Amino acid sequence: KGKGPQGKRITLKVAKNSMRVLFNGRRRLELSKMGIAVFPKCLLELADVEEIDLSRNMLKKIPNIIEKFQNLMWLDLHSNQIDELPPEIGTLRNLTYLNLCNNKLTTKGLPEELTLLRNLRTLNLGLNCLESIPTTLGSLKELIELGLFDNSLTIIPKSVKKLPKIERMNVKRNPLPEFAKEEEPIDTIKRIESLYLVEKKDLCNSCLQTCQGERDELHKLEDMTPGPSEKPNFTSLTTPNSIAIDNQEEWRIK
User: Fold this and answer.
1) For 187-217, what is each residue's pLDDT tens digit?
2) Total domain count, the chain
3) Dihedral sign for Cα atoms in the order 106, 107, 110, 111
4) What range does the domain containing 67 cover?
5) pTM of the predicted model as reported, rounded to 2 decimal places
6) What CA–CA distance (Å, rounded) separates 65 from 63?
7) Phi/psi zone of residue 102: left (φ > 0), alpha (ψ -120 to 50 degrees), beta?
8) CATH of the domain at 126
């Protein structure tokens, strides 16, 4: 007791009032943003639901009683503090959607039983602490969407890359070798490497015409460049910061 946030206590009555029936007939428990720190055991009374939304809470653990929810097809646990999954997660054979984004999952926190979710179509593991992903995830042959962004991955296993039905795989912001060297920006401005100064009389007619043409183009650009406005514009300064407050008399427009 007294260690960590206690969270909000969810009663069976609160849980029942959070039940929604979707247009497809599925029943969803909507318990997002409820301040829940511990998986409510009272949910066992509603273990026949098809969908559970426990996102944006303070959950650190998913208990092994998750195996009681055998009808579960959709489970959203994003934006919690979960660092590992129980092996019992693999018993949810009807699960097609699993969102674990924005947690504290490590590679060790992914049980091998995760690969038993053979009907899984969407798996989001983005924004976690993964340094690698199991090659066995390649056994999830029904996967269509896979989120791996914002981790510490240095390699994506071939078995995962070659998933037969994968359509979207987000691996952005990982230290992957293929993204290590970003393409250099194209320099649209021609840089002058050498500059030669001569007098007009030393130029031939052809060179003189070329120089005059380029000089005319330069004058046109100068004419198009707007001059400094009479009054500076501070549209981005909605309120002065702490440094500016002391010096605001120096920059305030009178």
Assistant:
1) 555 555 555 566 666 666 666 777 777 777 7
2) 1
3) negative
4) 26-179
5) 0.70
6) 5
7) left
8) 3.80.10.10
